[in-house]
Amino acid sequence: MDPRFFYIGGLHLPAYFTMLSAGFALAVYLASRWARRNRLDGGRMIDFGILMVVFGMVGSKILHIFADGHFWDYVNLCRDPSLVDWHVDIQECALLQGQWDAARNVCHPITQNCFAWISGSGFAFYGGFVAAAVFSIWFIRKHKWPTGKICDMGGWTIMLGLAWGRMGCFLAGCCFGAVTHDHSGITFPKGSPASRHQWQEGLLDSYREISLPVYPTQLYEAILAFTIAAIAYFVVRPRKRFDGQVFLFAMVSYAIGRFLLEFIRSDERGALLGISTSQWIAMGIIGLCGYLYFVFRRKATHR
What we know:
303 residues, mainly alpha, two-stranded antiparallel sheet, 10 helices, 6% strand, elongated
């Protein structure tokens, strides 16, 4: 896998954002077609989809900053870069124009950067989901759209976009799994996030080595999301008993799958009481969906 797609001169397309953009562009397109079939404004649906992506990117970045353990790195990079540790070797430190700390074998940045937090790396899906959901509540109410029907449409389109995004994660090498020695394990290239993490854990002598085999959790989650999207659209949607049921199926199914996948992930993630941030959010979403089940059912019986 390669974190960059094809090159044009000295420029390249980052694999993660290319796949993520393709996935959500497809989701927005399908949502606009769905809107027209249901006598809603297709153009407004496109606006809604684009704004959902924007709020999702902002929310996913915010959760990454606060939950993945990088908050003080961003603060210190702006205030006092010497307090930030870059876990690289001396050769890469020179390329990054950092200051090598021989006593601790780490590299320190030497220039302040108060905007590093808006860089292209570092996103957390559930942060984006929560932010986009809050925005969608306001947007749907403002335009007096049918809440349950819109949620059902989001159930399969969100999963479709997520599946493409996770394939981008695989190409970029992020969100990797724990070390495994069974036949499902895959290795990542030299210098990949998996190699760097295993080097810091003492499992490799250098991050310039190919990583040890790890679970391809990015592909597991892509398959999970594609499967949920397909079942939601082709199975649950035609048989639903009330508006909102498709959405609830998709969200609960993903939350359960994500909760389980977290046990075999090994990338840096925030945790509390041995449970990752995403697992806590997944449990909260399952509880919220339990409440929404009765809300949607009540609306259906009172029509």
